[in-house]
Amino acid sequence: MYDLWIASCIAALAVGVFVWGLIFWCVIRYRKRGNELPVQTRYNLPMEFLYTIAPILVVSVLFYYTAVVQTDVVKESKNPDVTVEVVAFKWNWQFNYRDGQGRDANTVASVLGTSEVIPVLVLPSGRSIRFEEQSRDVIHSFWVPELLFKRDVMPGSIRNTFEVSSIDTEGAFVGRCAELCGSYHAFMNFELRVVSPEKYEQFLAAKKGGSSTQDALKAIGVDEYATTTKPFDTRRNTANFNPSDASAGAGS
């Protein structure tokens, strides 16, 4: 997907340079040199053929590679290594680790965001991961900018799914809601924490054993709280949502 984007930009720049060159050439070559009217050409078949066929070829090539990349991006395997149910609601996230795919699968561990703590979604590197998304209220959007994927999360019976073949870079990545969803949309952040498969299994085992998310993160030797969700504080409280003279839930 990244390569397609870069190639499209290069192609657009090349076409732009060509068109700009023709414009400046015409401005200089055919500038007014007197009052005599230039020769009027009724038609030019080679030129008309060029500006009809060339755009069709450019669009056809871009369409082909876009279709190839899109097919690769949306494809899903039968048995992904990890399945996570993404539940969005005003104005936070819940991540449920599932033991299978579909609505009939069971949740074996869960991470829930609160007004005080931004949720941290822990995933293993080098593993295929399926996301199954649903919303409890309005349309939200699950977005991790640095990893170049974003999917709308729909309310009702719609359950969007998508899969990533692997995440190869370990670290912490900010996640956001990219769909305007109400007063505190800007606070609807989460963090994706990519760790080694061994640490992921340790984290999941700790969660299954009843540990809190922060205790499970501490057990695998990483930061207990989100670190990438700037410009907003990692640990939120009602003061972030309301002015000091307003009661909780009153808004601002």
From TrEMBL:
Q: Which UniProt keywords apply?
A: Copper, Electron transport, Membrane, Metal-binding, Respiratory chain, Translocase, Transmembrane, Transmembrane helix, Transport
Give the SUPFAM superfamilies listed for this entry. Cupredoxins, Cytochrome c oxidase subunit II-like, transmembrane region
Which regions are flagged for Polar residues bias? 233-245
Task: Give a yes or no for keyword 4Fe-4S in this entry.
Answer: no
The reply on keyword Ligase is: no
InterPro entries, alphabetically? CcO_II, CcO_II-like_C, Copper_CuA, Cupredoxin, Cyt_c_oxidase_su2, Cyt_c_oxidase_su2_TM_sf
EC number, UniProt record: 7.1.1.9
Where is this chain primarily localised?
membrane
Chain positions covered by the region annotation Disordered:
233-252
Q: Where in the cell is it found?
A: Membrane
GO BP terms: namely: ATP synthesis coupled electron transport
Sequence intervals crossing the membrane: 6-28, 49-67
- Reactions performed catalytically: 4 Fe(II)-[cytochrome c] + O2 + 8 H(+)(in) = 4 Fe(III)-[cytochrome c] + 2 H2O + 4 H(+)(out)
Role summary: Subunits I and II form the functional core of the enzyme complex. Electrons originating in cytochrome c are transferred via heme a and Cu(A) to the binuclear center formed by heme a3 and Cu(B).
**PANTHER family in the cross-refs:** CYTOCHROME C OXIDASE SUBUNIT 2 (PTHR22888:SF9), CYTOCHROME C OXIDASE, SUBUNIT II (PTHR22888)
Q: Which family does it belong to?
A: Belongs to the cytochrome c oxidase subunit 2 family.
Protein name (Swiss-Prot/TrEMBL): cytochrome-c oxidase
Q: Which organism is it from?
A: Micromonospora humi
